[in-house]
Amino acid sequence: MTLEEQYKSLREGAEKLALLTAAEKNKALEAVALALENNRETIIAANKKDIEIARSNGTKESLIDRLTLDDKRITGIIESLKIVLAQTDPIGEEIAGWKTPNGLNIRQVRVPIGVVAIIYESRPNVTVDAFCLAYKSGNAILLRGSSSAYNSNKAIVQIIKDALQNVAGGVAQAIELVEVKEHNHSDVDAILTAVGKIDVVLPRGGKKLIQSVVSNARIPVIETGSGVCHLYIDESANLEMAATIAENAKIQRPSVCNAIECIVVNKKIAENFLPMLVQKFAGRVVFHADKAAYDILCKQKDDSGKTKLLQATEEDFGNEYLDYECCIKTVENIDEAIAYINSHNTKHSESIITESLANARLFQAKIDASCVYVNASTRFTDGGEFGFGAELGISTQKLHARGPMGIKALTTTKYLINGEGQIR
């Protein structure tokens, strides 16, 4: 099927979806959840092909982790779908209503956007997340995944389509997958200029992908951000807590956008904290340290004897490593920390570790990001952790949607006005 044919099919699907009841959509999503459960082996077999190709191409293991699907992750995908299924259908929700002096009844109600496109890298779980959020909110969706995950995505989409074709309330035209050819991005250019055919596009991936979409799109974009996230260790921080949170935020899954890329340390506690950080990381992370941090760290040896230490260059500040690497920046005070973070972040997620209520409030008030934490890991910036079940991505813009995007992020509103012959 050509892109033009897919656009047409999706528009027809969106029109059908807009007429479905919440119960009909839920029944279709239940059928999809069951189909995914019954086709685990098919999905894992397709995913293994993608992993084999990725390894043969020399892809980093941290990025292969993003690509990998196993039984545990498939279970997580199905559970996320079921959480979305259980949520209140947003379509038709009355946001506001009033009667004008001349007797007009005006209601503002929530409606689907229409046809949505998502352009994303690796992570085939996004295929199911994006589909179920779109379907629940009454939208048809065009999926343009990366060539690295094409076999996985193709298998998943076929399972979804088959399930939708065999259930009342199922609209198989609600989902289409772009056939991806390696090193050929002409299809992306076509999607970005599909005025009147695609209502909105979401990029989900690295900095290069997002900048390309934002720069070249002629259709509306909901901008999601790459994740240059920071953890600021305040002078009043509980240092044991800080080291534990730093370990989780950097090491638990370094290839994801809500992992930290820079630890900002107040100089007043650097001599005490940085040796603790070395022990906690135990040689698992390469440190790119500024001069003050480097001078402290070069004297330290962790129990593993494997600490890797480099002097930071200007390119390290604001870099998204997506790997077992981390920048260390020292600052004089919280004001300098805030200024540094705001000038180097991607407006995604930032956290302060502090025992000072005043500093916590200042940090949350002045940091420009979609999610700002106090004494917690940035790894919680996630639709599932926020209770949304699945997510479309983390919006770092300030219009329409910001932060983890659930079903309401794929809706807009219209005004319904009822009269009795009024004229102006």
Give the count of helical stretches: 14
- Return Rg in Å: 24 Å
* Structural class designation: alpha/beta
Mean of all residue-level pLDDT scores: 94
Order of helices and strands: HHHHHEEEHEHEHEHEHEHEHEEHEHEEEE
Number of DSSP E strands = 16
Distance between the termini: 49 Å
Low-confidence stretches: none
User: Percent helix among the residues?
Assistant: 40-55%
Widest β-sheet, arrangement of strands: 10-9-11-8-7-12-13
Please summarize the sheet with the most strands: 7 strands, parallel
Strand content: 15-25%
What is the global morphology?
A: globular
Short recap of the structure:
The chain has 424 residues and is an alpha/beta fold. The chain is built from 14 helices and 16 strands.
